[in-house]
């Protein structure tokens, strides 16, 4: 059989994602799966109803390229209400295939070969491949263990004349830390006199605890003027499999974004957009999320408070880091693997998100799960 030769990979070092690898191992060993971030409970049935209504009403052909206008309108109103910054629904908002496509598209539209992009590590794994495939160079700023906070004076040293973009993620996956208003103000000052674009990954904007407020880049005038703010309905409405998200940015940036978007996907799922436009009109559908997930975080942490794991309660996201250094000094990948195979509990080793796979002796557990699942997971953790 003919086999094509001479394949030159654009991503020679990229392997299958840790979420796929660990998820497969968890299934193979019948382990409780707190690894990949997704809920194991159903979304609000109202969402099914609205989607099916939209299908029956005939919204089954292509939507507008930028997204269904009615949905863009509600998103614009929501951002104005929460962050006091108004994005023009026609010119400054695009509906995307999850936040992942928004992130990929923003990077592709702006990063030229040789451009530098500052990535804060540990980082969610979709940023660096998108930079690399476009010929850009990831410049790392590694957060310190155990605080995972940014020292902005150190951060500033990473900026050069080649810096095209900075990527931030708040609330932060995997650390569960959030950027404070002070963090955002410092970043704003650092970027003020530059032409650097900010890519602000805010997919966990509605999962934030202990009465803290989400500090969106859209709240800060000079940041908003240079930012792509990326969001995910998958996270907010417990439908990660629907892969629906959006991106907001000033017109001058969004115009370029849409040039790529229209040829990468053209438009996204039409009936679901119609359903989301109706569902999003009720603010309790997203404002109730903080309390909903805080209860889950508190339940999980209460169950393991006497275990050998130590932790700082997550400030946002549906992830909790647990430090296992009292149990073993082994690498986190080895420990995570043993936890799956020997104890039937899956989590994510965070070393692969760190520079040079630094071992922080921490595993990431997703608590977007039913109480009974969290209870069973805690039973396992308490025995170690
Ligand atoms: N950014 C972060 C930090 C995430 O955790 C995720 C979730 N997988 C995404 C982006 C991607 O979101 P989506 O599933 O909407 O593409
Ligand atoms: N965001 C999810 C997580 O961090 C993973 C999504 C994916 O597998 N790509 O667990």
What does this 3D model show about the protein?
This protein has 384 residues and is an alpha/beta fold. The protein has 2 domains: 18-37 and 290-382, Aspartate Aminotransferase, domain 1, CATH 3.90.1150; 45-285, Type I PLP-dependent aspartate aminotransferase-like (Major domain) (Aspartate Aminotransferase, domain 2, 3-Layer(aba) Sandwich). It contains 15 helices and 12 strands. It has helices at residues 18-28, 45-56, 69-83, 98-110, 127-133, 152-156, 181-192, 221-224, 233-236, 251-264, 270-279, 284-287, 289-303, 332-343, 371-383; strands at residues 32-33, 93-96, 116-121, 137-142, 163-169, 197-201, 227-232, 245-248, 319-323, 345-346, 348-349, 362-366. Strands 2-8-7-6-5-3-4 form a 7-stranded mixed beta sheet, sandwiched between helices. It has a 3-stranded antiparallel beta sheet with strand order 9-12-11. Strand 6, helix 8 and strand 7 form a beta-alpha-beta unit. The longest helix has 15 residues, at 69-83. Bound molecules: 4'-deoxy-4'-aminopyridoxal-5'-phosphate (PMP) and glutamine. The site of 4'-deoxy-4'-aminopyridoxal-5'-phosphate (PMP) has 14 residues, from helix 4.
Largest sheet: 7 strands, mixed
Query: In the CATH classification, which architecture of the largest domain applies?
Result: 3-Layer(aba) Sandwich
Alpha-beta content class: alpha/beta
Low-confidence stretches are none
Q: What is the CATH homology-level superfamily of the largest domain?
A: Type I PLP-dependent aspartate aminotransferase-like (Major domain)
Strand content: 5-15%
Distance between the termini: 52 Å
- List cofactors, ions and other ligands: 4'-deoxy-4'-aminopyridoxal-5'-phosphate, glutamine
Q: Provide the residue-averaged pLDDT.
A: 97
The strand line-up of the biggest sheet is 2-8-7-6-5-3-4
CATH topology of the largest domain: Aspartate Aminotransferase, domain 2
Tell me the Rg in angstroms. Answer: 21 Å
| Range of helix content | 25-40%
Instruction: Please tell me what the overall shape is.
Output: globular
Elements, N to C (H/E): HEHHEHEHEHEHEHEHEHHHHEHEEEH
Total beta-strand segments: 12
Counting structural domains, the number is 2
């Amino acid at each position: 059989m003919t086999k094509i030769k001479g394949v030159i990979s654009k991503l020679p070092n990229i392997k299958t994602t840790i979420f796929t690898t660990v998820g497969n191992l968890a299934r193979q060993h019948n382990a409780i799966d707190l690894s990949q971030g997704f809920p194991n409970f159903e979304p609000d049935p109202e969402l099914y109803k609205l989607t099916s209504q939209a299908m029956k009403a005939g919204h089954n052909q292509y939507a507008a390229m930028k997204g269904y206008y009615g949905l863009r309108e509600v998103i614009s109103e929501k951002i104005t209400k929460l962050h006091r910054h108004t994005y023009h629904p026609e010119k400054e908002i695009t509906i995307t295939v999850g936040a992942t496509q928004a992130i990929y598209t923003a990077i592709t539209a702006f990063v030229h070969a040789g451009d530098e992009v500052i990535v804060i590590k540990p980082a969610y794994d979709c940023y660096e491949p998108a930079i690399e495939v476009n010929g850009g160079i990831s410049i790392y700023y590694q957060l310190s263990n155990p605080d995972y906070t940014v020292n902005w004076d150190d951060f500033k040293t990473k900026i050069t004349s080649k810096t095209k973009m900075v990527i931030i993620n708040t609330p932060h996956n995997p650390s569960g830390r959030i950027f404070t208003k002070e963090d955002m103000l410092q970043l704003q000052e650092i970027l003020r006199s530059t032409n650097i674009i900010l890519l602000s990954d805010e997919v966990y904007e509605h999962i934030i605890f202990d009465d803290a407020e989400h500090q969106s880049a859209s709240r800060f005038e000079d940041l908003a003027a240079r930012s792509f703010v990326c969001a995910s309905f998958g996270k907010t409405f417990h439908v990660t499999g629907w892969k629906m998200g959006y991106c907001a940015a000033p017109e001058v940036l969004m115009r370029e974004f849409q040039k790529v978007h229209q040829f990468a996907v053209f438009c996204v799922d039409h009936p679901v957009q119609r359903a989301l436009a109706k569902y999003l009109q009720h603010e309790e559908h997203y404002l109730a999320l903080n309390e909903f997930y805080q209860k889950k975080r508190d339940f999980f942490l209460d169950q393991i408070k006497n275990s050998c794991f130590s932790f700082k309660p997550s400030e946002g996201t549906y992830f909790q880091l647990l430090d296992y250094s009292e149990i073993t000094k082994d690498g986190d990948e080895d420990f995570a693997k043993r936890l799956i195979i020997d104890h039937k509990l899956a989590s994510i080793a965070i070393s692969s998100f760190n520079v040079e796979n630094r071992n922080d002796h921490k595993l990431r557990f997703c608590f977007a799960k039913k109480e009974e699942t969290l209870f069973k997971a805690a039973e396992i953790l308490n025995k170690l």
